[in-house]
Amino acid sequence: MWLTEPVNSLKGIGKEAAKSLENLGVRTVGDLVMMFPYRHEDNRLKDLAETPHEERVTIEGRVESEPSVFFSGKNRSRLQIRLLAGHHLVKAVFFNQHYLKHRLTPGMTVTVTGKWDRGRQTINVSSFKEGPKQTGEDFEPVYSLKGGMHQKTIRRYIRAALDAVSGELPDPMPAELLEQYKLPGIAEALEGMHFPRDAEHVKHARRRFVYEEFLGYQLKMQAIKKVRKEAGKGTELHYDLDRLKVFIDSLPFELTGAQKRVVNELCAELKEPVRMNRLLQGDVGSGKTAVAAIALYAAITAGAQGALMAPTEILAEQHAQTLADWLEPFGVRIALLSGSTKAKARRIILEKLAEGEIDLVIGTHALIQPDVNFKKLGLVITDEQHRFGVQQRRILKEKGGDPDVLFMTATPIPRTLAITAFGEMDVSILDEMPAGRQPIETYWTKREALPAVLKRMGRELQEGRQAYVICPLIEESDKLDVQNAVDMYEQIRQYFGGRFNVGLMHGRLHPDDKEAVMREFSEGGLHALVSTTVVEVGVNVPNATFMVISDAERFGLAQLHQLRGRVGRGAHKSYCVLLADPKTEIGKERMQSMTETTDGFRLAEKDLELRGPGDFFGKRQSGMPDFKVADPVHDYRALETARRDAERLIASEAFWNGPEYETLRTVIEQSGVLSDERID
């Protein structure tokens, strides 16, 4: 079968060409036909009168003058002709192509593509061919190549591959779905991607492969959910509803509508005999801790134990204090376990956990040490889940057999990315802020305004408040002209002249030193804290009301919003000042967006729009699949459709038994998502 044959079995592809293709990840004929272009050049003829300045344009015209050639330096030349295109007499300029002088003669027709200079009435030619434009050349595919491979060469190879496999291409998409969405078959779609007839051909071919990629991915995600539910019986937690209502009524605030909705989702799932695997995302201050407390208390009234894992000691301590205030009056026995817990206290906690004499343990990664055992672990909550590796989260889950699992994050994730990156989870969203919470006033000003900003900050400190100053770097960098934390720290100390205590924190400090600085600030020993982004997650200092973010244009919107969330956590009015001199329109748009809204989800959508899905989570742990054609941002409607279809298919008998779904089933089986090892 041609699809599985090596590429050098095709005529015209030798050993050297096969090596070059292998560098592109192409080994078989099937790989070659599925090597899609990353864009299509629009080569349709355009009227120059309607073409904007500096836009790429293709025109057909008659040569009206002898070519003139000018040389400047070794091997640098500029060839120029006059070209009559419709009613426009323009100059066509060819750089370093003086050898064309003898091919371009007055009266001949040529087709040229290049950048249009409206003021000079000139086209700087990037490609040209003799004669009028041929049909079928309107949309030219452009492939991502390396190692000296040319676009024309790869097109020739792909043409040979498509001709070879013609008639033997199995279509992985069932006829039912192709018909429902009016999608082209596999052969027609491949032609449309590689050798399109027109704009419609490209559009429908791309539409088909976008949906196919999303459907394949969502089928895997839904299959993981199905396997998890069937593999682990889970823990049925029949909580005491009356006691739970009394606890909720005792909280010092009224739950928001969003909190009530999410609590109902969690409680319904706790009672089911399948393991919960849910992501709870909510903006800073949206009340995730209260939801976690209610879910933990529900599990405890059902006779189970709960565990909450936080990424830092100080965050674990804050959670422990808050939960103790709320839960201990109801007889809940709580313990805090972290790296600094003394050996004797640790031994007592471990014994009580194993005996079931502790209902709720809160801690750091110390919770996943081998000697930590539970009598009956029913619910595991991981705060800021992205800060822990998959293996760390898995170890904690396995300590209780099949406990329900809730991951929490304060990073608002746009729905399209949540569906994609966390597709195997159920997602709950807290999209409403508690009543009475004051929005943080945000201002954007130039860096030179720092003295005026410090003066305003001084007034806040004088009133007994505290302030953060955030910088992107620790030490001076030759590459980036940005204010660093060490310099900023010295500048602020000199400005205040000993009137206020100023601290410094950055990523190169030993973890114990970082904890000590953060603790001193949170306890009021420091008036101002100069820091890099290590303060981004979870720390609660209600007295901090002022934040300055230096070189704010260096941060993405999501990170700026996370940083801003460190203030505005108490009863006092809070402020955030962005010091930034953005050089680009996108940079200016970011700063403007920050001053216009404090809604994390709106900012996350904007950030996604400006940066794209690949950069949203960061390169190291994106969690994003690498789609060839599909884009979760721009193709979000297709993503939603594919998710719904995948849920329906995975739940149906026909999908698992019908011959028309065999290829889609094979995709799932080959991915390994149905194996026991994949379940985490």
From TrEMBL:
GO biological process, one term: DNA recombination
Domain Helicase ATP-binding: start-end pairs: 269-430
Uppermost EC category: isomerase
InterPro entries per UniProt: ATP-dep_DNA_helicase_RecG, DEAD/DEAH_box_helicase_dom, Helicase_ATP-bd, Helicase_C-like, NA-bd_OB-fold, P-loop_NTPase, RecG/Mfd, RecG_dom3_C
Xref: Gene3D superfamilies: 5' to 3' exonuclease, C-terminal subdomain, Nucleic acid-binding proteins, P-loop containing nucleotide triphosphate hydrolases
GO molecular function list: 3'-5' DNA helicase activity; ATP binding; ATP hydrolysis activity; DNA binding
PROSITE patterns: HELICASE_ATP_BIND_1 (PS51192), HELICASE_CTER (PS51194)
Enzymatic reactions: Couples ATP hydrolysis with the unwinding of duplex DNA by translocating in the 3'-5' direction; ATP + H2O = ADP + phosphate + H(+)
UniProt keyword list: ATP-binding, DNA damage, DNA recombination, DNA repair, DNA-binding, Helicase, Hydrolase, Isomerase, Nucleotide-binding
Positions of the Helicase C-terminal domain: 453-609
Superkingdom as given in the UniProt entry: Bacteria
EC number(s) reported in the record: 5.6.2.4
PANTHER family hit by this protein: ATP-DEPENDENT DNA HELICASE HOMOLOG RECG, CHLOROPLASTIC (PTHR47964:SF1)
Family: Belongs to the helicase family. RecG subfamily.
Role: Plays a critical role in recombination and DNA repair. Helps process Holliday junction intermediates to mature products by catalyzing branch migration. Has replication fork regression activity, unwinds stalled or blocked replication forks to make a HJ that can be resolved. Has a DNA unwinding activity characteristic of a DNA helicase with 3'-5' polarity.
Protein name from the UniProt record: ATP-dependent DNA helicase RecG
